[in-house]
Amino acid sequence: MRSNAPSLLPLFRSNTVGEFLAWTYLHPDDEYSIAELVKLLGATQPTLSREADRLVAAGLLIERRRGNLRLLRANTDTIMAKPLTDLLAVTYGPAAVLEPLLRDIPGIEEAYIYGSWAARFANHPGPPPKDVDVLVIGTADDDDLYTAARTAERALGREVNIHRISSASWRQDGPDPFVASVRGKPLYPLIQEGEV
């Protein structure tokens, strides 16, 4: 049985395809092995290999072999590159742009996208998200988070709001309505506990 088209961009067959293309097109100077993409996207190696075959055959990706290693990158020399990059930035871009920006900030224990973008990624129906809401757990410096948010806004073409809370606030089962609300709705993990 076929699954429903993803809510973020129903033109794609799955969220995996959208994420795959977002990572490659929003980081056009980088090459990714299938193993790296498995870690980034959480998809299986056979699935990503099949999608890579399709995307290379369609001319959207370029592959290069180094021994047994298959390296993939965006084909930026096609007429579709600019419009596809723009479309990916406003749909699947938040995950591909925010994760590398947050990864190197000291004091982040966990980070998640929540709100309308996470809901669309989880295939909850609704209009395209107007902004991106990010929850950071830990002691990261507010200035570092502000800089990351502004950098992400330039890449994504929309407002990025980063809200930081302490680890204790996130872990307690208390009456904090914000934490309860966020936990009760879809979350997209950017950095999970123990990854940093």
Descriptors for this entry?
Arc Repressor Mutant, subunit A; 4-stranded mixed sheet; 196 residues; single chain; 2 domains; globular; 3-stranded antiparallel sheet; alpha+beta; Beta Polymerase, domain 2
Topology diagram in text:
Blueprint: H1 15-25, E1 32-33, H2 34-41, H3 45-57, E2 61-66, E3 69-74, H4 81-90, H5 93-103, E4 108-114, H6 116-121, E5 131-138, H7 142-156, E6 159-165, H8 167-171, H9 177-183, E7 188-191
Helix pairs in contact: 1-4, 2-3, 5-7
Helix content: 40-55%
As laid out across the biggest beta sheet, the strand order is 6-5-4-7
pLDDT below 50 for ≥5 consecutive residues: which ranges? none
CATH topology of the largest domain, by name, is Beta Polymerase, domain 2
Order of helices and strands: HEHHEEHHEHEHEHHE
CATH architecture of the largest domain: 2-Layer Sandwich
- Number of contiguous helices: 9
For the record, give the distance between the C-alpha atoms at the N and C termini, rounded to a whole number: 38 Å
Outline:
The protein is α+β, with helices and mostly antiparallel strands and 196 residues long. Helices cover 44% and strands 20% of the residues. It has 2 domains: 15-91, Arc Repressor Mutant, subunit A; 94-191, Beta Polymerase, domain 2.
Report on this structure.
With 196 residues, the protein is an alpha+beta fold. The chain folds into two domains: 15-91, Arc Repressor Mutant, subunit A (Orthogonal Bundle); 94-191, Beta Polymerase, domain 2, CATH 3.30.460.10. The protein is built from nine helices and seven strands; from the N terminus they run αβααββααβαβαβααβ. The protein has helices at residues 15-25, 34-41, 45-57, 81-90, 93-103, 116-121, 142-156, 167-171, 177-183, and strands spanning 32-33, 61-66, 69-74, 108-114, 131-138, 159-165, 188-191. The strands form two sheets. A four-stranded mixed beta sheet has the order 6-5-4-7. The chain has a three-stranded antiparallel beta sheet with strand order 1-3-2. Helix 7 (142-156) links the parallel strand 5 and strand 6. Helix 1 packs across helix 4 (81-90) and helix 5 (93-103) runs antiparallel to helix 7 (142-156). The longest helix has 15 residues, at 142-156. The chain is globular, with a radius of gyration of 17 Å. The relative contact order is 0.14. The mean pLDDT is 92.
